[in-house]
Amino acid sequence: MGGNLIDYPWEVATPTADLTTSKLLFNSVISTPGARFITMDAKNFYLNTPMPRPEYMRLKLDLIPEEIIEHYKLREKAKDGWVYVIIEMGMYGLPQAGLLANQLLEKRLNEAGYFQCQYTPGLWRHVWRPVTFTLVVDDFGVKFEGIQHAKHLKEELEKYYEMS
């Protein structure tokens, strides 16, 4: 997707943890008795996020593999050697994909008691569980006290994402 060619008139910046925040979290793990640290990755985090406004794209037919052309009968749908596509779900390359995926994650995690810290982008906490984590794109750096609390976060994320 040629994100540089899309005219998206709204803000696309995504709150993400910076190096200082990550270092402070690491130091907090070291200085908190019983604290542990794990990392998690959400696979395909940007994909399939509903978009409030669709985007449109055209693809040159000769760039598409023949098996895809045949399977979807694209020759019948092509116009002057191009196939026109409506994009209604998030995908890599869209300027708004990161923000939309982050907003959906926030909604989902808020329901489980997790929230983004007001003054520190990319830093998340739970309302009562001893869990704090940073989020950079789709990577979670998690400080926790008690394995059951880390498992809770992982289980909440696995409701919506493939986690590793």
Fill in the keyword field for this structure.
single chain, 5 helices, alpha+beta, 164 residues, elongated, 6-stranded antiparallel β-sheet, 8 strands, 30% helix
Order of helices and strands: HEEHHEHEEEEHE
**Tell me about the biggest sheet?**
6 strands, antiparallel
The gross shape turns out to be elongated
Q: What is the strand content?
A: 25-35%
Number of strand segments:
8
Mean pLDDT: 94
Could you tell me the radius of gyration in angstroms? Answer: 20 Å
Strand order of the largest sheet: 4-5-6-7-1-8
Secondary-structure class: alpha+beta
Helix content: 25-40%
Cα separation of the termini:
26 Å
Could you give a quick summary of the protein structure above?
This protein is of the alpha+beta class and 164 residues long. The protein is built from five helices and eight strands; from the N terminus they run αββααβαββββαβ.
Characterize the structure shown.
- This protein is an alpha+beta fold and 164 residues long.
- It has helices at 19-31, 66-71, 74-77, 97-110, 147-158; strands at residues 36-43, 50-60, 82-89, 114-116, 123-126, 131-136, 139-144, 162-163.
- 30% of the residues lie in helices and 29% in strands.
- The radius of gyration is 20 Å and the shape is elongated.
- The strands form two sheets. It has a six-stranded antiparallel beta sheet, sandwiched between helices. A two-stranded antiparallel sheet has the order 2-3.
- β6 (131-136) and β7 (139-144) form a beta hairpin.
- It is built from five helices and eight strands.
